[in-house]
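Repro:
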Amino acid sequence: MKQELEAMLAAMTPEVYERLATAVEIGKWPDGVALTQEQRDNCLQLVMLWQARHNDDPQHMTIGKGGEMVMKSKKQLKEEFGIEPEVTRINLH
C-alpha cells in the first residue's frame, strides 16, 4: 500500500494536484459529479501529502513543505492582501 501511495505521489503533476484540491473544496469532479465520502477522504489525503512535499509557498490553512500546517494571523493575512490597518485619528485642537 505504501509503495502504491508513493508511486501515485511521484506521478502527480501540479495540474492533477490542482484538480484534486478543487474537487475536495467544492465536493465535485470537473464534470459535475459529486465525490463520495471515500473519494473526498482519499483526495484530501493525497492533496495534503503532495503539499508536504512540494508546497514551497504555503498559504493559510495548507500544509507547508516538511508537513507543518500553516496558520497565519489576521495581521499576516492583512499584510499579504495589502490591507492597511484602519486607524482613527481625532484632532483635539
